[in-house]
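Deliverable D2.4 — example input (structure tokens):
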């Protein structure tokens, strides 16, 4: 089977259930942003693998990547709250599962006493990029929710995830012996 179908050559794509919509539809923009976040996290995982101090972060972000497939599928099925197609749905439990991970990692970190610039080592910098992509994905989903039905658990998950990625970026600097980069007024 060939990867190209040519069905999108006129600027349309299919949602779960077969309905065709513009590739500029807010739903497509939203799950495209989630896909970009997933790809960015894939790159972050590759960078984390270059050091031996990040096996736990690699495991966490691999789980997150799998969760993001659920988020993308949820967004691609326009029949929220009832799916006629057995699409997996994002749950609030997915967001809540990130909280104890953040709490554990924050125990390793000094309290924040200044605004932190994105940066430090390569791994932390990539995680800060992922955090920005997560915020953009969250914004796209919120915009979508203003015009079409959306599972509200998606917004909660993306909001919590961006917080966790921020904590992970700080942790990456700490574990490699670098301080957070302080914003200078």
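Example output (designed residues):
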């Amino acid at each position: 089977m060939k990867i190209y179908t040519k069905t999108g050559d006129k600027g349309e794509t299919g949602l779960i259930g077969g309905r065709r919509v513009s590739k500029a539809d807010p739903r497509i923009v939203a799950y495209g942003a989630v896909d970009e976040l997933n790809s960015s996290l894939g790159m972050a995982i590759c960078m984390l693998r270059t050091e031996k101090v990040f096996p736990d972060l690699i495991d966490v972000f691999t789980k997150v990547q799998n969760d993001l497939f659920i988020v993308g599928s949820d967004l691609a099925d326009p029949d929220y709250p009832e799916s006629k197609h057995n699409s997996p749905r994002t749950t609030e439990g997915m967001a809540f599962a990130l909280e104890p991970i953040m709490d554990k990692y924050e125990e390793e970190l000094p309290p924040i006493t200044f605004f932190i610039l994105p940066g430090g080592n390569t791994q932390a910098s990539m995680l800060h990029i992922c955090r920005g992509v997560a915020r953009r994905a969250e914004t796209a989903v919120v915009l979508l929710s203003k015009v079409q039905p959306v599972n509200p658990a998606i917004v909660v998950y993306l909001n919590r995830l961006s917080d966790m990625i921020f904590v992970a970026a700080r942790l990456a600097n700490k574990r490699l012996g670098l301080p957070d980069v302080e914003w200078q007024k």
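Residues 15 and 185 are 47 Å apart (CA to CA).
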